[in-house]
Each structure stands twice: as C-alpha cells, then as structure tokens.
# Entry
Amino acid sequence: MKKAVVVGSGFSALASSCYMAKAGYKVLVLEKNEQLGGRASMMEIDGYKFDMGPSWYWMPDIFERFFADFGKKVSDYYELQKLSPAYRVVFGKNDFIDIADSPEKIIETFENIEKGSGKHLEKFMKEAQDNYTIAMQDLVYNPGISLMELVSWESAKRLGLFVKNISQEVGKKIKNPKLRSILEFPVLFLGAKPNNTPAFYNFMNHADFGMGTWYPKGGFNAVAKGMVKLAKELGVEFKVNEEVTGFEYQNGKAKYVKTNTDIYAADVVISGADYAHTESLLNGNRNYTEESWKKKTFAPSSFLYYVAFNRKVKNLLHHNLFFDTDFGQHAKEIYDTKELPKKPLFYANFASQTDDTLCEEGKDLGFFLIPVAVDLEDSEEIHEQYFQIILDRIKKCTGEDLSDAIVFKKSFGVKDFKERYNSCRGNAYGLANTLLQTSILRPGIRNKKLKNFFYTGQLTVPGPGVPPALISGKVVTDYILKHEEKILK
Ligand SMILES: Cc1cc2nc3c(=O)[nH]c(=O)nc-3n(C[C@H](O)[C@H](O)[C@H](O)COP(=O)(O)OP(=O)(O)OC[C@H]3O[C@@H](n4cnc5c(N)ncnc54)[C@H](O)[C@@H]3O)c2cc1C
# Structure
C-alpha cells in the first residue's frame, strides 16, 4: 500500500488524512501533543471541560460537504444546535445589541437603531450571499497555483471588490458606528484589519447573519473527535506525543519522517503543522526564507483565559463581544505598533449556558480572548493584568462581579502558542487574508524541491478558520491525487 504520513492533527490534517485514506493510502498521523485536534483541543480540570481554541461554528455547509464526501452526515458524528440569539455585542453600561438567529430579525434590529439601515443591510446581505456562492463554487476549493483559477465570469465582475476594503463597503450606507462595527466583526476571523481586507470577503457576513451561529454539543472538540472517528473508520492510524523533528531525503523526495521516538517511511508527506515551523525542519529544502516569514501579515496572537465559576453567570450570553472601546486603536496596537493594547476589545464565551455537559449543574465556565500582536513578550503577570481588565469591564458594563465566583483559572499566551503548537511568531490562527495574501499569493501547497511534500492548514490556501482548514485538507489531497503518477515516480 502507498504510505502517506501526515504531520499534526488539526482540522486540515484530519481532513487530508480522511481523503488520502479514502483514496487507498495507508495513512499515519503524527501529533506532537498529547491529544488530537490541534487548536481545537480540550482541557479538562476538576470536571470543567474547556474548548481551548475555536468556538464559533460558522458555515455549516462546509462541514456537511466534508462528511458527505465520505457518504456521511454531520449528525452521524456530532449534534448541532443553532444559537438564538446568536451572540451579544456589548458597547457600554447596559448598552448592548443582541444578534438574532435570522436575517429578517437582524434587519429589523438595524432598522430600529438607524432608520433606513434595514434596506441597506438587506442589499448588502444579498451581495454577501452572492459572493459566498461564488467563493465556494469558484474560488476557495482551488489549490492557489494558477492565476487562471481566479478567472471566471462571475469573479471577473467582482474585481472591484478586491480593490475596495470591507470598511469602505460597510461605511458607504450604514452610519451608526455600532452597526458598522457589527458588520466589520466577521472579517476579524480572517486575521486582518477590516480596512486591510478586500470587500469581497463580505461573504463572511453571509456566514454570520445568513447562515447563523451553531454549537456542536460537547464543544468544538466534538467536531475534532467526530473527524478522528471518521478517519479511524477509514483506516487512518494516529500517534500522539510524536513530534516530527526532520526528514530523510532520496532523489528529490522526503522518504522518511523522523520523530522524537521513531522514523517512518513515506511515499507522500503532508504537513498540517504550522507552515513556517515545518520549513524550519526542511533545511535546504524550504520554500521561503526565515526572513520572508517575518515580513508576512500574521493573524493576531491572543491572551486566553479558561476560568471555572462556582455559580451561573448572569447578564451575558454564550458568545459576547466587548466592543466598548475603540477598535481602531486596538487594531493599530496589534498590526502596526505591535505593543500591549491599552484598552483592548475582548471576547467572552460561556458555552455552559448552552451545554450542561461541560460542568456541573449550577456552575459555569468562561473562555476569554484578547487579540494581541504576534511576537509580543508575555508573562503570567501580564496575563493577570489583562484578566483584571476583563473582570472590571464586565462589571462596569453588566453589573456582574465575577471576581468572587472564580474557582480556578488558566491563562495562555503568545509563548504558549509557540510552545504548544510550534506556531510561527505565536500566531493564534495563521496568516491573515489580506489582498496580498489571498489565493495564489499565499504560501503554496507544494514544496518546490521535494516532489512528494505538501502543506495544508491555516498558513496556506484558503486561509484561517476551521471551515477553511477543512477545505485546505481537501484541496491538497485533490492536488496530490490528480498528479499522483508524477509524485510517486
Ligand atoms: C483561540 C482561538 C480561537 C479560534 N476561534 C475560531 C472560531 O471560533 N471559529 C473558527 O472557525 N476558527 C477559529 N480559530 C481558528 C481555527 O481554530 C484554526 O484556523 C484551525 O483550527 C487551524 O487548523 P490547522 O489544521 O491549520 O492547524 P492546527 O489546529 O494548529 O494544527 C496543527 C497541529 O500540528 C501539530 N504540530 C506542530 N508541530 C508539529 C510537529 N513538529 N510534529 C507533529 N505535530 C506538530 C500541532 O500540535 C497541532 O496539533 C481559532 C483559533 C484559536 C487559537
């Protein structure tokens, strides 16, 4: 049997391992950490079960499409629930907007806040939906190798949307700053500032308002577990606590994969580990210099807090965005001046408000996230300082004093991203989707010197986020299978 070795077990690696196994390969997945799922790991302490990474389940169609490729359905592997309201955006003391679970209701919310904005939103959403259809049909499932991939009648008609940015597009008709910030929020998942993200990416607004926010029961880790189950059914073998440390080469190929404990023969190698880290293991066979990685625009890093509470949290929902400070200033601190933020925006998640399997009845768990610049120096003291900011702001905005309800907390920062995931510069979710880092301009899926070596994941095409990671796993495998004869020769 032909052998494929897959490095890492994030969503892109899991997806590619399933597709390779389906195509008849004997697949071995090597994961450095103690569990599978990459960023979607789960941390369990004293009966509290924390998702360590992703929490917003958007674009359910992409997950269905993935499982359908194997004759399965999402519901065969995990249970989904649509959140209603989807999320809360907090702007100040007792000042918030809840985003409902349907476009019609959201249009009504906008209209109530800014007269006339409802009809603008309706038009904007229609465009966002059209862009979503085009992106999914014509663009994101391409390998990012030829300019021709981008050329279709529908995409050509939208060239202007690659030159304009999201902020300009949103600001054209909607004037209320709160509504504007809500419409700019979805592209933050792409890792760049809204004014540095092509307007075409407003298809993320369709993902948000049009398709809704879903929750996989058991947390996002249940999705990773579901994919691992599928992979095992297809015959994929997994090894944890196996860090890939290098490769042995023969005739322009990576023939052996070396780990901290063993060595494995491979006909094809797919790395779903951080692209830049993978390159650091390739010696003279890398695609890009160490220097060039420093010039790229990475998605932010983050300060994360996993907090156990001894009671239920009031006045907040499952997903809460604290937009009670100026994002312009915070964005500058993330991308331009690369310093600790003075008044950061943050995200607060209380998944146990929806899911009673995550902790005991009558208790809650919280996950808090502050986006920060990559490469920041951080420490426990700095994390603590920012945790106090979060508690103060929650108290100020909602009246809820959470300080006396904390059972324990763990923080996670830039250094941890580097250590746990071998993440380049401590990025939390890959390489941003700016114009100059879109499609063929992103780091490529093929190694230019080793014909059997490929990359998948959030630093290559199509970009950051869980649905793109699933797509990335498919794209790389489709490419390999299409060129298999040449690759294996
Ligand atoms: C805090 C946070 C919140 C997020 N929120 C969301 C969200 O709400 N919705 C959403 O869609 N996306 C979200 N994302 C982004 C999303 O989680 C990622 O884009 C996606 O999971 C990346 O998948 P991946 O396969 O590219 O990489 P990863 O998940 O990073 O997987 C790479 C794997 O490779 C392993 N590895 C590294 N080096 C080696 C080595 N040498 N040998 C063996 N294994 C190695 C790592 O341990 C890791 O398991 C979030 C990310 C973070 C961090």
The longest strand covers residues 301-309. The mean pLDDT is 96.
